[in-house]
Design goal:
With 362 residues, the protein is mainly alpha-helical. The protein has 2 domains: 13-220, no CATH class; 233-349, no CATH class. It has helices spanning 13-31, 44-49, 52-66, 70-82, 88-91, 102-117, 123-129, 133-141, 201-208, 258-271, 273-280, 284-289, 297-313, 321-332, 336-349, 353-361; strands spanning 177-179, 196-198, 215-216, 219-220, 236-241, 248-253. Strands 1-2 form a two-stranded antiparallel sheet. Helix 1 packs parallel to helix 3. It is elongated. This is HNH endonuclease.
Length: 362
């Protein structure tokens, strides 16, 4: 996690309602009683039950739960009553993950996946919950607090979704939700709002894919809880390696404790932070030249400082602003001879004024 999520940012009302539905369905079946809609938004049970596909999957899960041995029923009831936040498992490797009986896992997964991908979009469900998924995404990516900005909080390199002029807010494109605990592996949390984080397409569909935040090579590991934690500025160290002919950006993730290092390593391994940032700035000369070109060393230093401050202040506004700020600070801190060589290379590669005039004014 690169950017802390602002604490007053409310989670999805639709997924909160569906999570309550799923848990009450399971509790009612395990306790041998009728479904009690009292803990759900008014009308939500009827809206969900009125959808044939959802009702069939819910019935299949209920039948399997009813048929369990009492010992297994008791264990599942105990787990459901704990009602633990999924992110608790990310920050405590000693916290045992709920065990779902083999016969329950498949129907639970099928219903959980269906609730997330289909039921959540039903008009009746949206009406009962008081918002649609797009409404939540709009609240999440709003620039003003408690919104978190439209730049991905995991990587800082990409918009959650591009904004289109002339399109009402809740019809704008939206980025994907990341299941922090994958719904295919942990279906009990498939529609838990605390398990669903809006992130960018690259983080979700290119970097993370099916990677597990809880386990690697059969071993439990720690991860950042995105609703309460993020990497600290001092833990993200950006330097310039100028040992070769072409200087290159190097990102170091350095935790002050074993647990913090484990979280940083998981963040990096799952979302490929180092590779993506170092890859973006392989053409360091050209990247710096986009913002800073100066005729003298003094002007170059002043421009680097000014640009770093501006990018840092707008890190939630545009992709890579955070990383550009860090890179410009690192260039500022370079050995004087290496920095001057970079400045001269930038000046030599800058397009002549005539070329710019032909591009924009003809």
């Amino acid at each position: 996690m690169l950017f802390a999520i602002r604490p007053a940012l409310e989670q999805s009302k639709v997924f909160d309602g569906l999570n309550r539905f799923l848990r009450e369905l399971m509790m009612a079946a395990l306790e041998g009683r009728a479904f009690d809609p009292g803990a759900l938004p008014v009308g939500l049970h009827a809206a969900v039950d009125g959808n044939q596909a959802t009702r069939d999957l819910a019935t299949a899960l209920r039948e399997v739960l009813v048929g369990l041995e009492q010992e297994r029923k008791t264990a599942l009831i105990r787990e459901l009553l704990l009602d633990r936040e999924p992110c608790n498992f990310l920050t405590d490797r000693a916290l045992a993950v709920p065990v779902i009986p083999d016969g329950v896992f498949s129907p639970l997964k099928q219903l959980s996946v269906h609730l997330f991908g289909r039921t959540a979009k039903l008009v009746g469900v949206e009406a009962c919950c008081g918002e649609c998924i797009n409404d939540h995404c709009s609240r999440f990516r709003a620039a003003a607090a408690p919104g978190n900005g439209n730049v991905c909080c995991v990587c800082g390199t990409e918009y959650l979704a591009q904004v289109r002029a002339g399109v009402v807010e809740n019809e704008q494109w939206r980025g994907p939700y990341d299941h922090l605990l994958a719904k295919d592996e942990y279906p009990l949390f498939g529609v838990h709002p605390g398990n669903l984080l809006p992130i960018c397409h690259t983080c979700n569909s290119k970097s993370k894919l099916a990677k597990d935040l809880l386990h690697k090579d059969g071993q439990r590991r720690l991860s950042f809880s995105p609703w309460t934690e993020c990497a600290l500025p001092a833990e993200v160290v950006v330097t310039i390696d100028d040992a070769d002919v072409f200087p290159r950006v190097v990102v170091h993730l350095l935790g002050g404790s074993v647990d913090r290092q484990d979280k940083l390593d998981t963040w990096n391994e799952v979302y490929q932070i180092k590779n993506r940032i170092e890859g973006e700035f392989l053409a360091l000369r050209e990247k710096v030249a986009e913002d800073v070109t100066s005729d003298s060393e003094a002007e170059f230093m002043a421009d680097l400082e000014r640009r770093a401050q501006a990018k840092s202040g707008a890190c939630r506004v545009s992709p890579f602003n955070y990383w550009r700020a860090r890179v410009y600070c690192s260039v500022y801190a370079m050995d004087q001879a290496s920095r001057e060589a970079l400045r001269l290379a930038i000046r030599q590669s800058s397009p002549p004024a005539q070329a710019l005039e032909n591009l924009f004014f003809n």
